[in-house]
Design brief:
alpha/beta; Arc Repressor Mutant, subunit A; Rossmann fold; globular
């Protein structure tokens, strides 16, 4: 209920740029106390900025850091995670490899033979080609910040594909709101890839835990997290694999 209400608040704020408490009470059928509490919690998570009687979007949450910057952050952690993830790819598999710095780092560690990789990532396409790995790149519009292909054409192409394994990046992992990212079109692509995979994984360094971004793409129980370590987080809510071999999977 709360999750749905927050998503509606975000949608209304995006549509109108700013919303009042009175508008939200009327649209959502919630009490003023509930709406004010929601807005306070959402501001604490940097999703909204409150003003007297209402709130507006925190636009910074929709801005992705450039890939060049991402490539220079958490480098050792990403390398550990990438190595761990690459070992989960086996011969003759159909694999989805999301855009992002950690998934790109995976490619040099892939040893499986006769695989086909589907990716929306432009840097991934280059490295896969250098490795001689059979590759399908999604078509569509370029989201320059993450160097990813998104849009209706990419989704239409992806809807006809199914994967043995999928490795998807995230900008946030939250106990209540699952996996999230900053861009709505990328969120749709990630969600579809997860739903079309026998073994879906979210691959990320530990800095993304306890963060929430505007666009949810999956619930916590819909994918296994591969990360360098897990900070203060309820382990009963997630499935995980760590580079040291720790896992909740039997």
């Amino acid at each position: 209920m709360k999750q749905e209400r927050w998503q509606q608040i975000m949608d209304l704020a995006k549509e109108k740029e700013a919303v009042t408490v009175a508008e939200l009470c009327s649209q959502l059928g919630a009490s003023e106390a509930t709406i004010r509490r929601d807005l306070q919690e959402m501001e604490d998570l940097h999703l909204l900025t409150r003003f007297h009687g209402g709130a507006k979007l925190n636009e910074a949450q929709y801005i992705e850091p450039a890939m060049a910057l991402k490539n220079e952050t958490q480098k050792e952690q990403k390398k550990q995670v990438a190595y761990c993830a690459a070992k989960l790819i086996h011969d003759n598999q159909m694999v989805y490899l999301d855009a992002g710095s950690t998934t790109c780092e995976m490619i040099k560690f892939i040893t499986a033979k006769n695989i086909t990789v589907v990716t929306p990532g432009i840097p991934q396409l280059t490295v896969l080609g250098q490795r001689g790995i059979n590759t399908i790149v999604l078509g569509g519009s370029l989201y320059w910040s993450t160097e990813a292909i998104t849009g209706k054409q990419a989704l239409a192409q992806l809807s006809d594909l199914y994967f043995d394994t999928a490795f998807v990046g995230t900008n946030g992992i939250h106990e209540q709101f699952g996996f999230s990212t900053s861009n709505e079109l990328e969120a749709e692509t990630k969600a579809l890839a997860i739903h079309h995979a026998k073994n879906p994984y979210v691959i990320t360094d530990s800095s993304k835990f306890n963060l929430l971004r505007p666009c949810q793409f999956a619930k916590l129980d819909e994918a296994v997290i591969i990360t360098d370590h897990i900070p203060d987080f309820d382990l009963s809510l997630i499935h995980y694999i760590l580079p040291d071999g720790s896992t909740d999977r039997k």
